[in-house]
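Page 47, continued from p. 46.
Same chain as before, 221 aa.
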Amino acid sequence: MNVPAELLSPGLAAVGYVLFLLALLWAALKAPWWHLSDNEDSHVLLATCVALLLVWAMKAGVAPGLELHLLGVTLVTLMFGWQFALLCVGAVLLGATIYGNGGWLSFGWNGLLLICLPVLVSWRVLRFSERRLPENFFIYIFVAAFFGAALAIISVGAVSTLLLWSVGAYPWQRLMEHYTVFYMLLVFPEAFLTGAMMTIFVVYRPAWVATFDDRRYLTNR
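Result:
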């Protein structure tokens, strides 16, 4: 989903820019940059950004603002933490906008909706699983990864629908019939791919996953 730029006044667009840039600045200040001192970590982060840019380029849509594509935000959040997730996916959004997949006037609101919202949801699900659920490998995969990705993309679809309807972009019935129902079809693929990729990473490349701790999820010590 991309917020149609023609629906935004300069003032409203400026609000989106300010809020999104503040989120990026906060992430940059809080990011554990020392983790990137290892060349492998920095290369993995860069490769993830490039791969996600390709994923975002593969989209379908029936009208302006009603594009559909996988997010991959939960995967990035679990791999690098919320700080690098905001910065990495922010760079992806910048690249997609330069390529023409989005308007500059709506860049800030797209960042808030497509990046900040799913990163927040994914991180809260992870924290909930850590504090309230048993320390178990399958809890991490099925709750933090699978359920977290599903809830993240559902939240984006729901807020997108409400936003497009509230600004008068499309009537409610058209959104339900031509956007929301199809967006919900992305929930299982998003959740399944995130869970599958996280399983592969924590088994074969656990060092790539900043939020996974062998001692916590495998040995329970």
